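Lab notes, practical 5.
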Amino acid sequence: MSEFQLYFQLGFEHILDLEGYDHILFIVALCAIYKVAQWKNILLLVTAFTIGHSVSLTLASLKIMQFSAEVVEFLIPLTILLTALYNVFKAKQDQQRSLMNSFYALCFGLIHGLGFSNYLSMLIGMEEEVLNPLLAFSIGVELGLIVIVLVVMLVGFLVMNVFGAKQRDWILFISGAAAGIALILILGSDLIANWTPAAGTPASTFE
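Output from the prediction step:
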């Protein structure tokens, strides 16, 4: 197996790894508002997300931009929560919103790329040339994202067209579940768990 194939496979398997379901959950929430007929909008979203995470993945892997693991661990579920809430309160679909969603996907992709970099840096740390592994890994991630999107679109099609559910109910179900899981991840993150009031702050104002 060539180096390119190796890192391509690692990227593909990493995005589909159920133990790292936070990335999967974000894509599910991001695509929940679309129907199959809107595949161009979905493709734009996935491309924007890929560009975002590829940029931060490259910068972080080259040690140009770095954040602590606990900050990234907190920010990733936060992107899921914000996306889910946006779905609930901004259910109307139009061209302007589609462009805004792509912008959000790009920005949030930057954050998710930092999460990928924590994993990838350990693998390519000893490599003399890192750009080819980064490219292969990103392409693998992109293909994995497309697989996730196809599954979401298929399930959504069955729910709305076979079982007769309304699109609004589908959006609320997916977004509500994503928001709930994201909130649990946020509250369980090390950043929150390790947070303590400043020294000297009284534990209570009541005697």
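Observations recorded by the TA: The CA atoms of residues 56 and 202 lie 41 Å apart. The chain is about 75% helix and 0% strand.
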